[in-house]
Amino acid sequence: MTELSVNLNVAALLRNRREHPWPDLIDLARIALNNGAAGVTVHPRPDERHTRPDDVRALRALLDAEFPNRELNVEGYPDARYLSLVHEVRADQVTLVPDDPAQATSDHGWDFEAQSAMLADVVGTLKAGGHRVSLFADPDADQMTHAAQTGTDRVELYTGPFGGAYDDSSTEKRELDRLVAAATAAEAHGLKVYAGHDLTVGGTGKLVSRIPSIAEVSIGHALFCDALTFGMAETVRRYLGSCAIGRG
């Protein structure tokens, strides 16, 4: 079954609008994990507009104390600050993204051909430190050969265009076909496939029904939008139901 990692950035962004400790990221992570999430994802950006280094440390402590079989996935651009943090917190997975610090959110994958040497160096260092590595990737089948050459363990396919086509069935089908082709190419090179960005409950079901081999989806924005209506526990269960659609 496709696993679910809950991205907590939205909750942190809401918390940071006031000088108050709520919503409490640790409480929300605990609810998600108690209801079946395989792990939590954070993206501590340099400007600290949502999750901060202390949040990442607190989540590591939560997992160590209460959920030792679950995973902490830390996303970010591989600058010195980020690499030091993922090493400190013993991130189970490190997801490298090509974000400019000014970006509102991740909106494109790596140019693996152009940046292969830099990525191969960073990936090698991270793997030597005991981290599993995933690289954020556009759904471009032709890029997967170059992605594999970096030594990464897996790729996370950017599903933003697919998720954004919720009201346009022809565009949605075209984007889903691109994701299928990219996943097929990645797996042919021995890479496991993750996916994430703008995935709703329905979109997740469509995705994993076409690509049942997706190892994990990382979901934040749409999940927290649903949680306003259904509550965190029920929302996680709803997403897990969609993740199970691809089970053979």
Predict the CATH topology: TIM Barrel
Total individual domains:
1
Largest sheet: 8 strands, parallel, barrel
- State the secondary-structure class: alpha/beta
Distance between the termini: 8 Å
SSE string: EHHEHEHEHEHEHHEHEHH
Mean pLDDT: 95
Oligomer: single chain
At the fourth level of CATH, the homologous superfamily is Aldolase class I
Q: What's the arrangement of secondary structure elements?
A:
Elements lengths: L2 E5 L1 H7 L9 H10 L4 E4 L10 H14 L4 E6 L3 H9 L4 E4 L19 H13 L3 E6 L6 H5 L5 E5 L1 H4 L5 H20 L3 E5 L4 H10 L5 E4 L1 H10 L1 H12 L5
Parallel strand pairs: 1-2, 1-8, 2-3, 3-4, 4-5, 5-6, 6-7, 7-8
Helix pairs in contact: 2-3, 9-11, 10-11
Quick take:
The protein has 248 residues and is of the alpha/beta class.
Structure description:
The protein has helices spanning 9-15, 25-34, 53-66, 80-88, 116-128, 144-148, 160-163, 169-188, 201-210, 221-230, 232-243, and strands at residues 3-7, 39-42, 71-76, 93-96, 132-137, 154-158, 192-196, 216-219. Helix 9 packs parallel to helix 11 (232-243). The chain has a single domain, classed as Alpha-Beta Barrel (TIM Barrel). Helix content is 46%, strand content 16%. It has 11 helices and 8 strands. It has 248 residues and is an alpha/beta fold. 44% of the residues are buried.
